[in-house]
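Milestone 3.1: sequence recovery, worked example.
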């Protein structure tokens, strides 16, 4: 993941980055990115990019992550196109001023909220979904009328190089730029003081991003992660639970920020759920030539292998780790200690602990006792249980009877809370995040009540107390 080092004297790259930002700000100052037509053209361009270049994107994702064409379409291409299309169809309406009803003491007057672009945004993409989680924030930036610098992850080099090639060909190259590089490049860019930074990555790196943005008071959106729980009620349809749980968990080899990180299941149905999970995982992998999940690099592989080696639970499925191919078998661990590293650190891999609880309320309290996750998931038929879950469990987002699907709904904001992040985007929420909501109050010059001006008489103060 990207790391941030202390600020140093600007390098040659730093000077070049400063010149780039100055150029983008000059373009933004001309007003060309403010028009609805410019915004719509950029959104259309993102749609065309992922549509026309699907095979190239899939090949890059395969080179970086070993991802199949189907998972490339499902995880990066389809959601990016849907997000851009949703914004394109609505951005003109989003741009309209929003009239506001004023209190009596402001009349005569009219008031409204007017949305204006922030200026130039910096988008720092991650390696796990390097197309979607880089282009989706770009949708928000251009929908709001901003210029943007896109910094793809150096840990997905093929996708980074492809985006650097394609984005200037499809989008306005004078207003949207791509900068490749490692952590030092990220450091150099943040230090310049953009008008907004949107970062997707891990919690610890997110803290460094926020610290690096603080000297220039640059606002940030941090899309982080955490240990997203799945709570399974005794009345849940276990066949559905097993299919949805295994499917989302194994996408991208478990390297998904909203993937289920562990399961809390009622004791009466635990064994049945584990048995069904075992069967479903076997079915999903039956057609694979190598029933193991590819991990991004040796550092992440070693971390995951250590979780397997130190776990005190029993292995219902998997447990194999193969360093020569950087692959790990899909693994289900039953009842590890809650103090094991696999239960205290974000997994971000194809390892799923299953913890037995006596009831769902115990599960709710367990989740509440830990840092707030990016997602929280419940399987239950009971409306009462669903309501208790929503009122007691704090998370960036919640899904009932499925896992992670909220990220695919542009009608809903996507973001974290606490350790899982701050701010949010998608759809109108992304447009608003990357816009300034300017308050406007328009008053006539007359009438002009003299009693509000000094000297304040007793009568004037009496009237003012009633008005204000």
């Amino acid at each position: 993941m990207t790391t941030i080092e202390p600020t140093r004297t600007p390098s040659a790259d730093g000077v070049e980055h400063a010149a780039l930002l100055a150029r983008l700000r000059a373009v933004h100052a001309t007003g060309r990115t403010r028009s609805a037509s410019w915004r719509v053209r950029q959104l259309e361009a993102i749609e065309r990019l992922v549509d026309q270049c699907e095979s190239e994107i899939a090949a890059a994702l395969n080179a970086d992550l070993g991802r199949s064409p189907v998972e490339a379409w499902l995880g990066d291409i389809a959601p990016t196109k849907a997000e851009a299309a949703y914004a394109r169809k609505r951005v003109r309406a989003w741009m309209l001023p929003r009239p506001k009803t004023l209190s009596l003491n402001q009349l005569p007057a009219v008031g409204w909220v007017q949305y204006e672009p922030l200026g130039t945004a910096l988008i720092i993409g991650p390696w796990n979904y390097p197309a979607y989680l880089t282009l989706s924030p770009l949708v928000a930036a251009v929908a709001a009328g901003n210029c943007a610098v896109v910094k793809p992850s150096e840990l997905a080099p093929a996708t980074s190089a492809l985006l650097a090639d394609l984005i200037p060909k499809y989008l306005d190259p004078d207003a949207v730029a791509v900068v490749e590089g490692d952590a030092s490049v990220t450091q150099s860019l943040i230090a310049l003081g953009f008008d907004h930074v949107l970062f997707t990555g891990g919690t610890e790196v997110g803290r460094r991003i926020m610290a690096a943005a603080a000297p220039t008071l640059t606002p940030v959106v941090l899309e982080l992660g955490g240990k997203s729980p799945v709570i399974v009620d005794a009345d849940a349809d276990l066949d559905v639970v097993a299919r949805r749980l295994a499917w989302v968990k194994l996408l991208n080899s478990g390297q998904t920020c909203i993937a289920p990180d562990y399961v809390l299941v009622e004791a009466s149905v635990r064994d049945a759920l584990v048995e069904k999970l075992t069967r479903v995982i076997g079915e999903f992998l039956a057609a694979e030539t190598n029933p193991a999940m590819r991990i991004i690099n040796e550092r992440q592989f070693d971390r995951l292998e250590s979780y397997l080696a130190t776990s005190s639970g029993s292995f219902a499925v998997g447990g194999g780790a193969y360093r020569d191919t950087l692959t790990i078998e899909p693994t289900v661990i039953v009842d590890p200690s809650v103090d094991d590293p696999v239960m205290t650190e974000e997994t971000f891999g194809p390892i799923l602990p299953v913890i037995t609880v006596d009831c769902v309320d115990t599960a709710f309290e367990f989740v509440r006792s830990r840092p707030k996750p990016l997602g929280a998931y419940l399987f239950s038929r009971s409306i009462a249980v669903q309501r208790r879950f929503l009122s007691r469990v704090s998370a960036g987002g919640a899904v009932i009877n499925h896992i992670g699907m909220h990220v695919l709904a542009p009608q809903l904001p996507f973001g974290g809370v606490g350790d899982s992040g701050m701010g949010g985007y998608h759809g109108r929420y992304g447009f608003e995040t990357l816009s300034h909501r300017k308050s406007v109050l328009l008053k006539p010059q007359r009438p002009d009540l003299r009693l509000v001006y000094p000297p304040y008489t007793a009568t004037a103060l009496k009237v003012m107390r009633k008005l204000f």
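The longest strand covers residues 110-117. Residues 1-10 have pLDDT under 50 and may be disordered.
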